[in-house]
Design goal:
This protein has 258 residues and is an alpha/beta fold. 65% of the residues lie in helices and 13% in strands. Strand 2 and strand 3 form a beta hairpin.
Length: 258
């Protein structure tokens, strides 16, 4: 994928432009620039690892709370690949902080700039680890769930956890100082979380439809009693035991989608 193709996929939310304008008018453009650099490096980590694994990027979106990359990919991609793509943003961001820290110790960066970098680094790092869709934290949890639990249950639990933490985040914001920026971030998070909740059934149906359409080479085999499709896992091939007969995953799904 060329740089030109990547740039075509960039999408910046109007609120992000609004915050940039406000930062210029209020004399906080340096702070906004540092914030943007941290976000940009974070998303670069996601982009480079996804290119390495040949994932198709649909769009690279920038929001007030950070970035969000949408992929035009199968749900049944290896868990290991997706996990590396998810955590790569945090790794790249941490590497940037280490570089800035070293430059500060070499007196190449002023104390004031370093403190701003440090504050934005930790704020963005810990914010992204909050388990709320579409942040990295809940994606990591969902992938861990998916390793040990059925796909549908993993996704449902991740949505429930997201709602719990968005409520806690709102309470925390109200008890502490809540700014207009915080209100915008909460609104965007709720909107993205609601989209995920409404698409729960669609996401699961897409998951099993992919298993019907394509031949995935999974090493592990899971035996499921009866025709309980909702107990299907990621990264596993399934055999269904129905009335003492063993039916392959492909055969069962063929009857469902024919």
């Amino acid at each position: 994928m060329t740089i030109k193709n990547i740039l075509k996929k960039l999408k910046i939310h109007p609120v992000f432009f609004f915050l940039a304008l406000i930062s210029i008018l209020t004399g906080l453009f340096k702070e906004f620039s540092i914030f943007f650099i941290v976000i940009f490096v974070h998303e670069t980590g996601h982009v480079l690892t996804s290119i390495y694994y040949n994932w198709n990027i649909e769009s690279i979106n920038f929001y007030p709370f950070g970035g969000l990359i949408k992929f035009d990919e199968k749900i049944n991609k290896p868990i290991k690949e997706e996990l590396i793509i998810v955590i790569s943003g945090l790794i790249f961001q941490t590497f940037l902080y280490i570089v800035i820290y070293a430059l500060h110790n070499l007196y190449c960066i002023s104390d004031n700039v370093f403190i701003m970098f440090k504050n934005y680094h930790y704020s963005i790092l810990f914010f992204n680890l909050i388990p709320i869709y579409p942040l990295d934290g809940i994606k990591i949890i969902n992938l861990i769930f998916s390793k040990f639990l059925p796909f549908k249950l993993s996704h449902k639990l991740s949505i429930i956890i997201s709602y719990i933490f968005i409520i806690l985040f709102i309470i925390y914001s109200i008890k502490n100082y809540i700014s207009m920026n915080t209100i915008l971030i909460i609104g965007l998070l709720i909107n993205k979380l609601e989209e995920e909740r409404k698409n729960h059934k669609y996401i699961f149906n897409r998951f099993i439809f992919e298993r019907y359409l394509y031949n995935f080479n999974f090493k592990n085999i899971k035996v499921i009693k009866n025709n309980k499709i909702m107990k299907m896992y990621r990264d596993k091939k399934h055999v269904f035991k129905i009335n003492n007969e063993y039916i392959t995953e492909k055969s069962l799904l063929k009857n469902k989608f024919k």
